[in-house]
Each structure stands twice: as C-alpha cells, then as structure tokens.
Amino acid sequence: MKPPRRALNRNPEIPVASLVDLAFLLNVFFIMVTSIAEFNGVIADVPAAERSQAVAEQTPTIAIQENKFTFNDKEISLVDLKQRITELDLAHKSGEGKVVLLEAQGKIQYQAYFEIMADVSAAGGVIGIVQEEGNQ
Amino acid sequence: MKYQRPAPAHIEIPVASLGDIAFLLITFFMFCSTFSRSSGGHLVPPRAQHLTTMQEGKVSVDIDEDGKIYVQGQIVPDANAVETSVTMLIEGETTDQGKTVMFKCDKHITKQVFEPVLGAIAKAGATIAALGERPTDKQEAQP
Predict the structure, then answer these.
(1) What's this model's pTM, rounded to 2 decimal places?
(2) pLDDT at A46 (0 to 100)
(3) CB contact, 8 Å: A43 with chain B?
(4) Minimal C-alpha gap between B51 and chain A (Å)
C-alpha cells in the first residue's frame, strides 16, 4: 500500500505575527525609558589671565560672601544687587563690556553663586569667574 | 428546499507591514536616544528663576552632595584630573557646542570644592554651561 502523499503547500508563508508583538514590546520599552531631557542653565566664562589683568579695573565685580554681597567693593543687599545688574544694561553692550566678574569669598555655597550667575546671564551679561590665587 | 450554508471565509489580517512599522519606530528611538552620562551620585541642583534652555554638550562634569567629582560619569580624584580629562575630551572640537561642558553641582557644595573644578574646566579651554532648575510654582510659593 502506498503511503498517502503529503499535500503540497502551494502558499508558503513565514509566520511573522509574533515578530510584530516582539517589535512592539521593544517599542514600549524605549517609550518607557526615554525621557526628553531639557537642560536649563547659564553659560559662564573664565577670563584668560591677560584679559583679566587688563579689564579688571573697569569691569563690574560682584563678590559673594556668606549672607553678604558687594558690588564694586561696596556692600549691597541682594535686591539692590539685582537692580544694579539690570541698570548695567549688559544686553546692549558688546565684547568686554558684557563681562561681570564674579568672586566667591569664604564658605559660600553653590546655590548663592548660581543665582547671581543666572541673574547676570538673564541681563545679557557674560560671567567671568574670579579665582583666588590659592585655588588655581 | 435545502439551503446550504456557505463555508466560513478564511479571513486573515495582513500583519507583515505592521512589523516593518514597528521596526522603523525602534530604529527611530535608537537613533534619537542618548544614554545619560550623569554620575551615579546624588545631587540637588541649584535653583534660579532666569535660566536659558540649552542643547546638551558632549562632556559632563558633576559634583555630588558628598563633593565627589565625576567626569562623564566616572569618578576623578581632583580638579587637576578634571582638567586633563576635559582637555582630552574636547581635543579636536572646533564648534562651541563641542567645547561646552555641562557642569552640574549640588547646591550645598562650598566654594572650596566647586571653584577649582570650574577653573580646571576653563583652563582646559572649554565653555562652562552651569546647569540648574527653574523653581516650580509650588516652590515659589514657599517663603
């Protein structure tokens, strides 16, 4: 007796249905783990030594100490300091005129330092970081 | 008279193209994603009202709440190591974006720690993008 002939599969297809499930699972993974990062901050510039020597005299300088601010060596409140920064009209100046030197003194924390950096930057200025000799 | 019920039609939804779409989406996400280069250390970013939104730079330098310094997520011993690492990382970069270093520092860190690091980044010839957060409405309401 002849064995029954296997029916010829005239329409061969690779089953891809499960592949789609897999692909969408990967999609879900990427969607879940991806976060659209937004970077907020300020651009700071540390002046080169030659430049700082040349312009230090006429450049506005802000010194931050613990709970104390000075603007061009005169003690000032934080509110007045912000006012003075606005009055400098830094946005309409160019080149070196935009630079405001920022000097930290004592055990100042980064939060206070950063706030002043942000204010100067918002006024259109460029922050020049002044370092103490021993810190360089 | 007998009515013969027609044999049920064998309906198949073609899903082959759905796979193509799914893989296209995967490709899109893979190209658009960048893995975070931030440190594993915990830090509380400083807050300020007037911050600008900027593009991500190629190099990141972080200082966590314990004062540990990280370059590209790897811990480094001191500011001198920051200068060396940043110099190597921005070598050959010609654009401002390529020379920008994303600097993140815990808000409680004192000047003795963050200032030498800022100086080191500047000495390496990079532009410092100091990152922070805008206060939320809830935080602004607090005294």
Answers:
(1) 0.70
(2) 66
(3) yes
(4) 5
Question: Nearest residue of A to residue B108 by CA position?
Answer: A109
Quote the pLDDT of residue B38: 64
SS3 A65: strand
Across the A:B interface, residue pairs with CB atoms under 8 Å apart total 150
What's the start-to-end Cα distance of chain B, in Å? Answer: 90
Which is more confidently placed, B122 or A131?
B122
Q: Return the pLDDT at A136.
A: 46
Q: Which residues, at least 6 apart from B124, have a Cβ–Cβ distance to it below 8 Å?
A: B82, B83, B86, B87, B90, B101
Map out the domains of chain A with their CATH numbers. Answer: 44-135 (3.30.420)
Q: Which stretches of chain B score pLDDT less than 50?
A: 143
B79: part of which helix (H) or strand (E)?
helix B79-89
CB within 8 A of B117, min separation 6: which ones? Answer: B61, B63, B69, B79, B82, B103, B105
Q: Which helix (H) or strand (E) holds A121?
A: helix A110-122
pLDDT value of position A127: 81
Cross-chain CB nearest to B130 (options A34, A41, A119): A41
Q: How far is B118 from chain A (nearest CA, A)?
A: 8
> What does the pLDDT look like over A14-65, one tens digit per residue?
777 787 788 888 888 888 877 777 788 888 766 655 555 555 667 888 888 8
SS3 B52: strand
Q: Say whether residue A91 is in contact with chain B using an 8 A CB cutoff.
A: no
DSSP-derived 3-state class of residue B103? strand
Mean pLDDT of A105-125: 85
Tell me which residue of B96, B93, B61 sits closest to B79, measured CA to CA.
B61
Compare CB distances from B50 to A45, A110, A122 and report the shortest one's residue: A122
